[in-house]
Each structure stands twice: as C-alpha cells, then as structure tokens.
Amino acid sequence: xxxxxxxxxxxxxxxxxxxxxxxxxxxxxxxxxxxxxxxxxxxxxxxxxxxxxxxxxxxxxxxxxxxxxxxxxxxxxxxxxxxxxxxxxxxxxxxxxxxxxxxxxxxxxxxxxxxxxxxxxxxxxxxxxxxxxxxxxxxxxxxxxxxxxxxxxxxxxxxxxxxxxx
Length: 166
Hints:
By secondary structure, the protein is of the alpha+beta class.
C-alpha cells in the first residue's frame, strides 16, 4: 500500500509539473504570436512593449545587430507607414527549464521573404514573458547555397575586410 501511495504521489507531481510547463509554454507562445501580430498591424507601441528594455534584434543582413533603441529607430518609419512586416508561424518549439525565468525558442515563419527561421530568448519580466533576444534568418535550401554564395560574394568580401580591419 505504501508503494502504491508513493507511486500515485509521484504521478500527480509529474502531472502537475507538466501542466505548469504547458501553461508557461502557452503563455510564451501567446506573447510571440502577439508580437508578430503587432508588427503585422504596424502597432509600434504594442510591438516594442513585448520586448525587454535590453532587447537585441539580429536581422537577416550581416550588419543588422540592433540594440533596442537602434531597432526602434530603424523600424519606426515602417510602422509609421502602416505596414511593418508580417510573419505567420508555421511551427515553433519552446524550451523552458523548470522554474526558470528564461526560455528559448526556434520557429519557422511564413514571411514576405519566403520561409524564415526565427530563434530567440524570452525573459519573464514581472508576470509577462518578453522577447529579450531575437535572430531572424532567411531559410535557404541546401541545393541553392552555392548560387546564393555567389550572389552575395562581392558584398560579403567587402564586409569581411571591414570587420577584419577593426
């Protein structure tokens, strides 16, 4: 009887932990969907309110490593025109260690650039999950890598010289 009780206690603990994990992942998923929707709706304040004060956004261009204030300045004209960018989620995986106030994720997105991959870090800021670090990249099929490499060779060579000179 004692073993049965301990087994039931263990199963209920595991079940409660899984439910809590599911709620956390649902909350993170909701925030990410709201963040992408705010961009699609060109809602500047809603978009940036879903980012931490020390957020970083890494764009698809090698020179796009934006601290939050820089990213706001870059993005503002797009939002002001009423059309920022529109990303819809194709799939997302969220990783959240137990009791952590941080999570990370990767996602595939349907965008105006075709399929892109996003990945990032979410931070629990008070009671709300916010984007702290985000990396966006254009997904390139392996069979097109050589063609793409040739297409960007001149630009990359010049940029490599700049980085190596610093």
